[in-house]
């Protein structure tokens, strides 16, 4: 049997094994084992030749800058869109899923991609076929936990998993042909792995999340293509000054995370109503100091507190001490004619407004209202 026939047979076995596992067990370990066996087959037949790509580090540096910019922009936008708690909790199950699905399957997949694309790099039709093969084996493990019980769930998987995977794999194939598999592994581990560990995520709706996941690989592809377009080979020349540019986005990213995460003393909050007008207008951003210290909350303070599952920002008009010495706050919006019916307990208090940034949250308010 010729090598090409062996390869077709092996690819068919991988696809069949993935499909059977998805329809029956849906076990991530089996997906990983199938890929390991396929990798062993490829190495035994093709060998694992190391190619020294001249500008591998330069392109990896570009990918890192793009990823840092992505996190900076998305978490900065969280100031406007708000944040939600991650569905994942850090435990052994989460760690094992990350190690198998993201690290294990990701590394093996990219080495397989590298071996096949480098061998058939001059055969366009084969590259297209391999592209769809990698899309298939990339999608199946990501949807093992989805139950397609309604049209909405099918549409959600298509928009949040299938479409982004199609565009990601264009980027992966391009990078693999140009600079090998290391950049792809780095991209997968960071861009898919952070979802298992970050406690707070920007509160995007499904439509916006899908758009971001589709557009981001295209942006990286355009950035990298710009570095290749002048000549057939990469013409990037490393600049030692540019190599330090990552420091600025990292510092800005840390500042944004500190403001929006809610885990630090101060956090940012976008105002979405007119109840505090004209003091605080709709679309303004307030910097809230987290405190439950009664001495720091006085009549006239702008208080942020939890009520009915939402964060409300109203002014303290009266401090009330009950017979059991418990403290409550009577609040009222500056725009409202009457006080709030609900008395705020100390347990419901989040903090006090310390700084106002006018108009910065307006894009979020407009977008949120247009999508309702």
- Strand % is 5-15%
Give me the number of helical elements: 10
Separation, N- and C-terminal Cα atoms: 60 Å
Widest sheet: strand ordering: 3-4-9-5-6-7-8
Number of domains: 2
Account of the 3D structure:
Helix 1 (3-23) packs parallel to helix 5, helix 4 runs antiparallel to helix 7 and helix 5 crosses helix 6. This protein has two domains: 3-260, no CATH class; 266-371, Umud Fragment, subunit A. The chain is α+β, with helices and mostly antiparallel strands and 372 residues long. Strand 5 and strand 6 form a beta hairpin. Residues 230-243 have low confidence and may be disordered. It has helices at 3-23, 28-46, 56-81, 92-119, 124-142, 151-179, 182-193, 206-228, 247-260, 362-371; strands spanning 83-85, 200-202, 266-270, 285-290, 302-307, 310-321, 327-332, 344-345, 349-357. The longest helix is centred in the middle third of the chain and has 29 residues, at 151-179. Strands 3-4-9-5-6-7-8 form a seven-stranded antiparallel sheet. Strands 1-2 form a two-stranded antiparallel ribbon.
Structural key phrases:
single chain; 372 residues; alpha+beta; Umud Fragment, subunit A; seven-stranded antiparallel sheet; two-stranded antiparallel ribbon; 54% helix; 14% strand; elongated
Topology summary:
Layout: H1 3-23, H2 28-46, H3 56-81, E1 83-85, H4 92-119, H5 124-142, H6 151-179, H7 182-193, E2 200-202, H8 206-228, H9 247-260, E3 266-270, E4 285-290, E5 302-307, E6 310-321, E7 327-332, E8 344-345, E9 349-357, H10 362-371
Antiparallel strand pairs: 1-2, 3-4, 4-9, 5-6, 5-9, 6-7, 7-8
Helix pairs in contact: 1-2, 1-5, 2-4, 3-7, 3-8, 3-9, 4-5, 4-6, 4-7, 5-6, 6-8
């Amino acid at each position: 049997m010729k090598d090409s026939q062996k390869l077709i047979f092996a690819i068919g076995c991988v696809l069949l094994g993935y499909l059977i596992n998805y329809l029956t067990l849906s076990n991530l370990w089996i997906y990983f084992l199938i890929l390991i066996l396929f990798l062993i087959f490829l190495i035994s037949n093709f060998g694992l030749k190391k190619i020294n790509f001249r500008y591998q580090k330069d392109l990896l540096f570009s990918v890192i800058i793009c990823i840092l910019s992505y996190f900076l922009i998305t978490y900065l936008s969280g100031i406007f869109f708000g944040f939600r708690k991650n569905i994942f909790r850090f435990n052994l199950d989460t760690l094992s899923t990350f190690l198998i699905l993201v690290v294990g399957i990701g590394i093996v997949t990219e080495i397989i991609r590298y071996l096949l694309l480098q061998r058939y790099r001059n055969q366009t039709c084969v590259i297209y076929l391999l592209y769809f093969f990698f899309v298939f084996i990339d999608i199946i493990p990501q949807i093992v936990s989805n139950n397609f019980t309604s049209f909405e769930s099918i549409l959600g998987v298509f928009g949040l998993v299938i479409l982004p995977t199609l565009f990601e794999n264009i980027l992966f194939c391009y990078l693999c042909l140009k600079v090998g598999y290391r950049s792809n592994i780095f991209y997968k581990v960071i861009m898919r792995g952070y979802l298992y560990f970050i406690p707070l995520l920007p509160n995007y709706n499904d439509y916006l999340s899908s758009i971001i996941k589709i557009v981001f690989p295209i942006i990286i592809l355009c950035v990298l293509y710009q570095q290749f377009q002048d000549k057939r080979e990469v013409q990037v020349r490393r600049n030692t000054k540019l190599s330090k540019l990552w420091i600025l986005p990292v510092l800005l990213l840390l500042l944004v995370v500190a403001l929006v995460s809610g885990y630090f003393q101060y956090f940012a909050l976008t105002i979405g109503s007119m109840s505090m007008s004209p003091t605080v207008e709709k679309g303004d951003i307030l910097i809230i100091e987290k405190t439950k210290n009664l001495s720091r909350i006085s009549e006239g303070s702008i208080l942020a507190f939890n009520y009915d599952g939402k964060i409300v920002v109203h002014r303290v008009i009266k401090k009330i001490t009950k017979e059991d010495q418990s403290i409550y706050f009577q609040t009222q919006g500056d725009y409202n004619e009457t006080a709030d019916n609900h008395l705020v307990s100390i347990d419901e208090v989040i903090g006090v407004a310390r700084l106002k940034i006018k108009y910065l949250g307006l894009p979020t308010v407009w977008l949120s209202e247009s999508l309702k």
